[in-house]
Amino acid sequence: MRELLLIIVPLAAAALAAIWPDNRTRPWFLPAAALAHTLLAFGLLLFPPAAPFHAWFGCDPLARAMLPAVSLLFLGCAAYGVPYLSLRAERSNRVFVPAFLAALGLMSAAHMARHLGLLWIATEAVTLSSVPLLHFNNTPRAFEATWKYLLVGGTGIALSLLGSFCLGYASLHSGGAGDLTFAGLMSQGIHLSRPWVLIAWVLLLVGYGTKMGLAPMHTWKPDAYGEASGIVGAMLAGGVTTVAFTAILRVRAVVETAGAGVVANRTLMVIGLFSVLVAALFLLSARDFKRMLAYSSVEHMGILSLGAALGGAGLWAAFFHVWNNSMTKGALFLSAGNIRRAAGGRTVDEVSGMSLITPRSAALFVMGLFAVTACPPFGPFFSELLIVKSAFATDHGWAAAFFLGCLVLAFFGLTRVVFAIVYGRPRQAARETDPRFRETLAVIAPPALLLLLSLLLGLATPEVLRQAWTAAVQQLSSTP
Amino acid sequence: MNDWLNLLIGLAMGLNLVALGTGRLPSLIRVAALQGVVLGIMPLVIEHELRLLGVAVAVATAAIKGLVIPALLRRAMRTANIDRDLHPLVGFLPSLLLGAAGMIGAVVLAHRLPLLPEHHESLLVAGSLASVLTGLLLLIGRSKAISQVCGYLILENGIYMFGLLLMHSVPLLVEGGILLDLTVAIFVTGIIVDRIQRAFDSLDTRKLTVLRE
Q: A155 near B155, Cβ under 8 Å?
């Protein structure tokens, strides 16, 4: 029952916000619903339900290990959303606020979907609900980004539906009754028709991998993240990608029990390492600091994929990294939003000296950079270290070496851009922009708190989270 | 029953080739609509005895794929007042050759895959794969936003055909949700098309090139 509230509360808030008449007070629906959602999600983390709510849907250990991170990130974005939307008072947020809230409810549904068809519907709905968020800025560039997002994302999601059908046919072919719940598919295990399982795996990996932004299906990402406002970028990079990763993990568990786990792990490793490499190379030539964040997201999706490929301890580290990714991406996107607003530009050619104009945001951005490039003592350092360790432990030393090499390249790329915009003399453009923008507590606290959480995750990982991740690993690797 | 079904699938596959060969936007929309109607008839042919549910699915599919969505596309085309010629990125002859090769490949692949006994004689898998390939080809090979939407429709049609294999086992909820999502997707796409038009005074996605490395 509590699980249902995770979906109903944001959707009800979205419906209310849609009919709320006042543009100025409407954004307050965001933090109110987000706070309720976070309390519910952490309630489920601390006091897990004895059994999932329904065979098709419920808070199983996997959802429990992921959803609170998304909820926490959303809370940060929602708190930031109030001052952000008051700065954009000239634009109606009658569509933006409900769409943002609906995305939260649908993401909760997608995390908890235990049925292949339900998972697909929820993921598609998340995609559609983020369309109005992307073209909120109403510029030609925003439309272009939205069109690419819709076309590439839509094609990806269509292929994942085909993959879902193939998996269903695999079950039907081996005498199943067409039960498309993950538990039902896993109980058929080794009897699933192998050729169909392999086709399904490829299609589902391409489909949900597009949503996650793994290379080479990442092409929509730089445009979408570059054009979206900070809170939308953070939500896409830390929330929607997590939905897709959860989906891939659920499918991988089925493929593994069907006896094709080796193939699945190998493809995940190749695509993960390729993503890290592509991201590192593009980061070396990035000039736009918001597009830079998109490539950094591609890199981190690659790291998640690599962790999942290693299984066991690697998978545990991947769950750890999901949390770190959500927190650090939130801090980076929100502080980048502040800098972008004050600077009036977004490339290293237009922006410099931001440490003088927006000292607090610039400091947060630099600290976020250290967090995201896995400098100790931030969380990502520990999760990436665990992934490297488990790569060596499972005789994938070459993968670890390749991975570390790419991380160094990415570090150079990221620091180059960040220090170029933070230090130096402020440009003329920055002195003439938006006089309304002040670094108030309301726009500094959300990214600062998210960064603090990333630090805490690294220094003192809560025991309850460790247990939740262990339970999720067990759920995915249990062979009934 | 299989003969009738295979006839319909053959018709849908033929329409794929027409879609690849056509040079005018209205006829591309018409082909996609016609394929939608053909798809709508399929569940009626598959069912041994007509039940209310099967008929409802068939009517809904034919209405949405054959009438509602094409009408939306035509409206977008008219309001945007765009040039009706397609200006392909991949020429018509190469598209047709690729489409035909894809069709042969789909038939060969479908024969090599393990199928249930009742699907051995059916062309559903082959037709589905061929339509998916055609859809992808149109998505890549045509530059206009509306023609890309048509490509996406044909891709979805292919997936729908595959879904028919599972019609008896997948609960209707999933099918309903899928149909709904498709409509919404196209609807949203229509809005975007409208906005691109206003922002760029054109529906040519080749002009969407500001964002690049």
A: yes
Q: Chain A within 8 Å of B213 (Cβ-Cβ)?
A: yes
Q: Which residue has the tokens 């070496």?
A: A401
Q: Is B122 helix (H, G, I), strand (E, B) or coil?
A: coil
CA distance A87 to A479: 53
Length of chain A counted residue by residue: 480
Give the domain extent around A431: 2-477
Query: Within A47-60, where are the H helices?
Result: none
CA of B156: which chain A residue's CA is closest? A158
Which residues partner with A288 through β-bridges? A347
- Looking at the partner chain, which of A125, A131, A169 has a beta carbon nearest the beta carbon of B165? A169
Nearest residue to B210 (alpha-carbon basis) of B196, B191, B190, B192? B196
Residue B208 CB: number of other CB atoms within 10 A?
23
Geometric angle at alpha carbon A420, from A415 and A424, rounded to 5°: 135
How close B164 comes to chain A (CA, Å)?
A: 10
Query: For the residues of A63-96, what is the DSSP string, one character each?
Result: HHHHHHHHHHHHHHHHHHHHHHHHHTTTS--TTH
Cα–Cα distance, B61 to B40 (Å, whole number): 5
Beta bridge pairs of residue B88 = B142
CA-CA distance, A452 to A454, in Å (whole number)?
5
Vertex A100: Cα angle to A94 and A104 (nearest 5): 145
Total structural domains within chain A: 1
Reported confidence tier of residue A480, pLDDT bands at 50, 70, 90 = very low
pLDDT digits (tens, 9 = 90+) for A377-411: 899 999 999 999 999 999 999 999 999 999 999 99
Q: Spell out the domain ranges in chain B.
A: 2-207
Determine the residue of chain A that is closest to B208 in CA distance.
A144
> CA-to-CA distance for B137 and B151, rounded, in angstroms?
8
Whole-model pTM: value is: 0.93
Q: What is the ipTM of this complex?
A: 0.89
